[in-house]
Amino acid sequence: MTDTRFPTPERIPIEDHPFFHGFDAGFLHRVGAAAEERTFAADEFLFHEGTPARAFYLVQEGKVALEIGAGGGPPLTIQTIGAREVIGWSWLVPPHRWRFDARALKPTRLHSIDAAALRAAIDADPLQGYRLLRRLVPVLAERLEMARLQVLDVHRR
Amino acid sequence: MSTVDSAVPAGGVPPNPWLPRPFRVEERVAETGDTVTLCLRPEDGTAPPPFAPGQFNMVYRFGVGEVAVSISGDPARPEELRHTVRAAGKISESLAGAAPGETVGVRGPYGTGWPMERLAGRDVVVVAGGLGLPPLRPALLEILAHRERYGRLEVIYGARSPPDLVYYDEVQTWRRRSDLRIQVTVDAAGREWYGDVGLVTARLPDARFDPPRTGALLCGPEIMMRLTARALEQAGVPADRIFLSMERNMKCGIGSCGHCQFGQSFVCRDGPVFPYSALRDRLDRREI
Question: Which CATH number fits domain B116-283: 3.20.20.70, 3.50.50.60, 3.40.640.10, 3.40.50.80?
Fold first, then answer.
């Protein structure tokens, strides 16, 4: 594992990531305190399908592929996620297990937010939690639209 | 086959639009597993008619049938007529199988082209999906040949999978240029692909353009164009400066038969290029 965890004596400034623009300072402070910076080398996995989803990732730089097993065949990349985007909602939805593999396609730097702490922050501040969900739903909608077009196989029609 | 041309009366009488002109296949380039580019020259040695980027020809495989195919060549070099064809049906399959030396018929060029004059002085966003790139290639070559006339040039090219990308070498050449940015994305890929996977619309935030002074050219699957046009308009690109190349079942090419009717328009005569502002309502209606 070349995964590097940097000591985080100060909280991570998560508000620098577009996903957290405009949140209340108290919420950002609480969530930022539960974040750490992590780096992954090319081809290194962030997580595997079925394993506990213990983090929400804010991509700072690099690129990550979401992969699914293709019925015994080689894995299939169904989406790539780059800088200023986020990875994962499995941390929010029980049973909190990843639904994909995630593999860095090139050296990648992320802010990893502890999922339990983030859920607690949302529960403690429903207004900020609602704001977070409003940011997360378009991410889900885009992935749903992507899946729909993949099913339609529009380039073959 | 030269008797076809000799049958066309001289002396100012318009040529018969139904008569295909014989062209010889000079070269056949395999682009993907089912897509080829045919380079054609008139058999009588004369020059093919000039064309505007975005126009199409009716290409005839004698004894099989005729199909509308966009012109994918360089408008500055109309003597090299190029058509990229995917073997998707009986006629296109036969056409894609045409070998060098064989003869095909060509009528055209037909249709409205990309409105290049409306892009002058503006940033240009070009979004192609799958075989939407060939109809856009002449516009790209035109812009690159007169680069000073245009602002920033952003190209987003999406395909089903990496092996389905056409013009791969040329796209790599474009990628090395400093005067355009190109993003390539696919719907799904294996581990050998280190590029982007996702919708072309997901690449728009990474494109650099000034929406109010941008013109956009879109060609690809209709649902892709619809989503992209919506996203561009939402970003601030005026709807009357987002242009889509529509595909319908074109038969005559001259607005006579009605096969390509699209609401109040015939795609072959009034299109294939339309501004999004004129199409928006029709694109959202399943019956049209």
Answer: 3.40.50.80
B47 CB-contact burial (10 Å; exposed 0-12 / middle 13-18 / buried 19+):
exposed
Phi, then psi, of B112 in degrees rounded to 5:
-80, 145
Of A6, A55, A47, residue with least CA distance to A31: A55
- Is the pLDDT assigned to residue A4 strictly greater than 60? no
| pLDDT score recorded for residue A156 | 66
Domain assignments of chain A as residue spans, ordered by start: 4-152
Kindly report the nearest CA distance between residue B244 and chain A, in angstroms. 16
Average pLDDT value for residue range B194-223:
94
Nearest-CA residue of chain A relative to B202? Answer: A142
Asked if A145's CB is within 8 angstroms of B164's CB, the reply is: no
ipTM value, please give it: 0.82
Locate the chain B residue with the closest alpha carbon to A82: B196
Strand B181-186 to B196-197 pairing: parallel
CATH no. for A4-152:
2.60.120.10
Q: pLDDT tens across A68-87, in order?
A: 987 778 899 999 999 999 99
